[in-house]
Design goal:
alpha+beta, Endonuclease III, domain 1, Nucleoside Triphosphate Pyrophosphohydrolase, 41% helix, DNA-binding
Length: 326
DNA sequence: AAGCCGGGGCC
DNA sequence: GGCCCAGGCTT
């Protein structure tokens, strides 16, 4: 690869982003965790609010988990932030609050895998450790015309090795951001802008008109459908929520919802508030929201809150949609 | 190696 | 409706 062309292209065309204004490893780390499986445009407002509220890793280590969840509600993959929180406490207690600077120590922290460790090492510390994400896999599988299924670990590792060989000849900080930026702006999943690409003269996919068939990503399994009745249980100015203990959306609050017809409480329906659908990675929720009056006793796991306090409880997007029906 | 874990943007 | 993701952890 002509690394100079890539780095020069980055110098001229990169987006100005809030997490590119800093070299603070804590800030880079927070941004990279937010960016896992999440688009830049989605992350920006969350990142700015997060850093304003928690400017240092000590602030993150000290915050209550529920307040942390309120800050990031809507971003998805909430376990990322349980791990982020846990890792901040480790850095404060075991590294005197100084974010570690060796790959080995960084990679050990919970929630930091190969990609995130490489991103932190290269972007924050300018060290030659590759950060190979979905963008890089797309760019390099096209550039080298590699048609192997990139959902298979072994094939991803092949790209990782190539990316590592490049970063060792590059300016690590610029290179890592440049190849991902190229993937985001030029070498896009659909409608890649090959005519504007600084690497088009050496791209084997472009040469063979295969840019629209690479990377080769095998199909994912079908999503399973689950239908829920969601209960808006009103009692004057109060209603009931529960905190999810499931792995899916764990820690977020929701209106009580049940899949089956046989329920552990009695109620009258006051009104059908509406139907909402929410699509996850591996399943689909179809939710029928019912405003009801409770006849029997509430369940122990429910908490009774004032309607005015609803916004104080972190909720995932599926149940935000239900809350918007109120 | 496969399954689990969110959400938004695009066509 | 179906496609795409700036991954990591568990089993």
């Amino acid at each position: 690869m002509n690394i100079n062309k890539l780095e020069n292209w980055y110098a001229d065309h990169h987006r100005k982003l809030p997490f590119r204004e800093t070299k603070d490893p804590y800030h880079i780390w927070v941004s990279e965790v937010m960016l896992q499986q999440t688009q830049v445009e989605t992350v920006i407002p969350y990142f700015e609010r997060f850093i304003k509220r928690l400017p240092s890793i000590h602030d993150l280590a000290a915050i209550e988990e529920e307040k942390l969840f309120s800050l990031i509600q809507g971003l998805g993959y909430y376990r990322r932030f349980k791990n982020l929180h846990k890792a901040a406490k480790i850095v404060v207690t075991q590294h005197k609050g100084i974010f570690p600077s060796s790959f080995k120590e960084v990679r050990k922290l919970p929630g930091i895998g190969d990609y995130t460790a490489g991103a932190i090492m290269s972007i924050a510390y300018n060290k030659p450790y590759n950060a190979t994400d979905g963008n890089v896999i797309r760019v390099l599988s096209r550039l080298m015309n590699i048609n192997d299924d990139m959902r298979i670990d072994k094939n991803k590792k092949q790209i990782t090795a190539i990316n590592q060989s490049f970063i060792e000849k590059a300016n690590p900080n610029i290179y890592t951001q440049a190849i991902m930026e190229l993937g985001a702006l030029i070498c896009r999943p659909i409608h890649p802008k090959c005519k504007l690409c600084p690497l088009n003269s050496e791209c084997l996919a472009y040469k063979n008109n295969l840019q629209n068939t690479l990377p080769n990503l095998s199909k994912k399994p079908e999503k399973k459908l689950i239908q829920y009745k969601v209960f808006i249980i009103r009692d004057n100015n109060y209603l009931y929520l529960r905190k999810r203990k499931e792995k899916l959306l764990g820690g977020m609050y929701e209106f009580p919802q049940f899949e089956e017809d046989l329920l552990p409480f009695d109620y009258h329906v006051i009104k059908v508030l509406g139907h909402k659908k929410h699509i996850f990675t591996h399943l689909i929720w179809e939710m029928k929201a019912l405003e009801v009056k409770l006849i029997s006793e509430p369940l122990d796991e429910w908490i009774k809150i004032s309607i005015d306090d609803l916004k104080l409880y972190p909720m995932a997007t599926a149940h935000k949609k239900i809350a918007n029906l109120l």
